[in-house]
């Protein structure tokens, strides 16, 4: 698992309470196991002084008490003790399993299991709608949200690359659902600041930019690799090439497109979000590396360099979207160019909200 959702959603107080409960339960089990042999022996004192572990009957109390202290009795008691403890632990597990589960969560888990099976069948289309409509996130189940989205993305990628006709979903529906699923999973992963989750989020964002907005991400990384040695006008020229499909489409409009009500359909919004996700506090942080492409043609560069290229691209395309002020992005680029490594992206965090 990439993260532990139960710990993520549980408050500190609940954690403490749960730890106390587990400690108390463990102590109770320990005390119970210790008392089993005694109860079996002492409880049978009234029953002709019979010792169950040793399977032996005594004629009087004094002899019986002396037997309880003998090495033979203690050895027999130890032999029986693991069995009894195991029985108690099994009972505890059964009680935990029998605890009531949120019906919505139970229903969602059943649907996820069924949809996963269907997704791996010869006709995975029916699984798409089920996986898309699962509401684990609202039920505070991020691990299951991750599982559902990951399975949905894998299924849609298979359908998208299929050479046979797909019944039930159009190519447009597959692409739009895949795009939204990648963004949703990337945003979820960004909540958990681990190397694994951030790297996967990077890949998801790049895939979304390439599939939806037709950004050549290998070229994007190639430019990012050289951005320290390319003059600003050269970077802007290369960034215009990256966004040329979008730019040419928008330049053909006689009337500017209205502002997008769905922010996922706003190129500038997604680019701005991506800038914030790729940026790090230190430009020289070599741990934040981004790769794209297959093993044979993999491109790798620093996360911050990608953020710089995306910032330049945003500056170019922002003039085509209603409600955004392109000159503010240009001001941000100027501030980034003049700032030191440690303060490199402070201006982005402070100013990028002003542009939209």
Automatic annotation (TrEMBL):
Residues 14-24 have a biased composition (Low complexity). SUPFAM superfamilies: beta-beta-alpha zinc fingers (SSF57667). PROSITE patterns: ZINC_FINGER_C2H2_1, ZINC_FINGER_C2H2_2. Residues 1-39, 73-104 are annotated as: Disordered. Residues 49-78 form the C2H2-type domain. InterPro entries: Znf_C2H2_jaz, Znf_C2H2_sf, Znf_C2H2_type. Residues 25-39 have a biased composition (Polar residues). This is C2H2-type domain-containing protein. The keyword Cell cycle does not apply. One of its GO terms (molecular function) is zinc ion binding. The lineage of its organism: Eukaryota, Fungi, Fungi incertae sedis, Mucoromycota, Mucoromycotina. Keywords: Metal-binding, Zinc, Zinc-finger.
């Amino acid at each position: 698992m990439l993260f532990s959702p139960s710990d993520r959603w549980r408050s500190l107080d609940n954690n403490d309470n749960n730890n106390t409960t587990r400690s108390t339960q463990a102590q109770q089990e320990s005390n119970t196991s210790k008392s089993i042999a005694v109860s079996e022996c002492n409880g049978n004192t009234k029953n002709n002084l019979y010792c169950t572990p040793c399977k032996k009957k005594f004629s009087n109390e004094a002899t019986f008490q002396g037997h309880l202290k003998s090495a033979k009795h203690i050895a027999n008691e130890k032999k029986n003790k693991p069995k009894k403890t195991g029985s108690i632990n099994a009972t505890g597990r059964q009680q935990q399993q029998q605890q009531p589960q949120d019906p919505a969560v139970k229903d969602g888990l059943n649907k996820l299991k069924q949809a996963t099976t269907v997704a791996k069948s010869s006709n995975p289309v029916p699984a798409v709608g089920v996986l898309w409509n699962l509401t684990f996130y609202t039920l505070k189940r991020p691990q299951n949200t991750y599982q559902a989205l990951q399975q949905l993305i894998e299924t849609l990628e298979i359908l998208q690359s299929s050479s046979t006709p797909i019944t039930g979903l159009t190519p447009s529906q597959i692409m739009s659902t895949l795009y939204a699923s990648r963004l949703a999973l990337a945003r979820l992963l960004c909540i958990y600041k681990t190397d694994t989750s951030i790297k996967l989020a990077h890949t998801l964002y790049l895939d979304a930019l390439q599939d939806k907005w037709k950004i050549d991400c290998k070229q994007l990384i190639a430019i990012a690799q050289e951005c320290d040695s390319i003059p600003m006008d050269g970077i802007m020229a290369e960034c215009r090439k990256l966004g040329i499909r979008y730019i040419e489409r928008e330049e053909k409009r006689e009337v500017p497109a209205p502002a997008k009500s769905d922010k996922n359909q706003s190129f500038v919004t997604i680019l701005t979000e991506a800038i914030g996700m790729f940026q790090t506090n230190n430009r020289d942080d070599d741990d934040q590396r981004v790769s794209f492409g297959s093993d044979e043609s993999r491109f790798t560069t620093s996360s911050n360099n990608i953020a710089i290229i995306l910032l330049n691209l945003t500056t170019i395309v922002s003039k085509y979207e209603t409600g955004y002020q392109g000159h503010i992005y240009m001001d941000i680029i100027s501030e980034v160019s003049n700032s030191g490594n440690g303060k490199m992206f402070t201006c982005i965090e402070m100013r990028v909200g002003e542009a939209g």
